[in-house]
Write a structure and sequence with these properties.
Helix content is 22%, strand content 36%. It is an alpha+beta fold. A hairpin with a 3-residue loop joins β16 and β17. 37% of the residues are buried. It has two domains: 153 residues, Probable inorganic polyphosphate/atp-NAD kinase, domain 1 (Rossmann fold); 131 residues, Tumour Suppressor Smad4. The mean pLDDT is 92. It contains seven helices and 19 strands. Strands 8-7-18-15-10-11 form a six-stranded antiparallel β-sheet, with no helix packed on it. A six-stranded antiparallel β-sheet has the order 14-13-12-9-16-17.
């Protein structure tokens, strides 16, 4: 087993955190290498971490059986984009707030290393999205969602949706969120979309502040093709992936979205499950009346 560590170097005290994680990995007798994104901090590490292998991303991915993403959910999304052409499993160590995808903290990661060596873990295949903007060569890629929105223009935009070439609707809104099951607990949820179990092969379309009472979120098969045409009187709309990569385009602009080719493989402990994470992280399904009664 070989682990490749990709940290978010903007996190507070990241050198000491990585040092601690590396010591845990070495104590577990597992081979590892570090992303060369930390080369500029190499001298800050104590021995023996200072003498570790610091590899460029492409070499690190080839080296690694699994990647350890150190930061939070946003760091995992960034890591997933970096390795999008592979299906290398990702372990998330959370240094952020939510930690919905990044399941482990520093303490639980140490415990998990024993399970990792024993093969007591789950690799969950998560659906991804692939998008193509008409007239643009580069493809869009997302783990959570692809969002079309009004950008800096403080007016509604017009959106026309077709699914498998069948006309669905034309409506005015601030935008539209096209989400995977993984992304259903993110921006889509905040816009009123449903929670979709990651084992479901489905895509959710959640309008952002639609100016019509009857325009509600829609769940379709992950095998279907979505075509969206956006128009704005301002002339431009924003298209962003996972809230991290944004493209501004003149309108009208057409975007086609389908299920991605490679899955995103997320490593879980077999000691927890999706519904437990929903309850612990989002307080989903918890009845405050029962909690108050139990505390008396």
């Amino acid at each position: 087993m070989k682990l490749g560590l990709i940290p978010n170097i903007s996190k507070e005290d990241i050198v000491n955190t990585v040092d601690l994680l590396v010591r845990q990995i070495r104590e577990a007798g597992i081979e590892y290498a570090l992303s060369n994104i930390m080369l500029g901090m190499q001298e800050e590490f104590p021995d023996p971490v200072k003498n570790s292998d610091f590899l460029p991303l492409d070499e690190l991915i080839k080296y690694s059986d699994m990647v350890v993403s150190i930061g939070g959910d946003g760091t995992i999304l960034s890591t997933a984009y970096s390795i999008r052409n592979t299906e290398t499993p990702v372990i998330g160590v959370n240094l952020g707030k939510m930690g919905f995808l990044a399941e482990f903290d520093v303490d639980s990661f140490k415990e998990f290393l024993g399970d990792l060596k024993n093969g007591s873990y789950i690799v969950e295949k998560r659906m991804t999205l692939r998008g193509k903007i008409e007239g643009v060569d580069d493809e869009l890629y997302a783990i959570n969602d692809i969002v079309i929105d009004k950008g800096s223009w403080a007016k509604l935009i017009e959106l026309t949706i077709k699914i498998d070439d069948d006309y669905v609707s034309t409506f005015s809104a601030d935008g539209l969120i096209v989400a995977t099951p993984t992304g259903s607990t993110g921006y889509s949820l905040a816009a009123g979309g449903p929670i979709v179990n990651p084992k479901a092969k489905a895509i959710t379309l959640s309008p952002i502040a639609p100016h019509i009472l009857t325009m509600r979120p829609l769940v379709i098969s992950g095998e279907q093709k979505i075509r969206i045409v956006a128009r704005s009187l301002y002339g431009k709309v924003n298209i962003n992936c996972d809230g991290q990569r944004t493209i501004s385009r003149n309108t009208p602009v057409a975007i086609e979205i389908t299920k991605g080719g490679n899955s995103f493989n997320l490593v879980h402990s077999n000691k927890s499950n999706y519904f437990e994470i929903l309850r612990n992280k989002l307080f989903w399904g918890l009845d405050i009346r029962n909690i108050n009664m139990e505390s008396k």
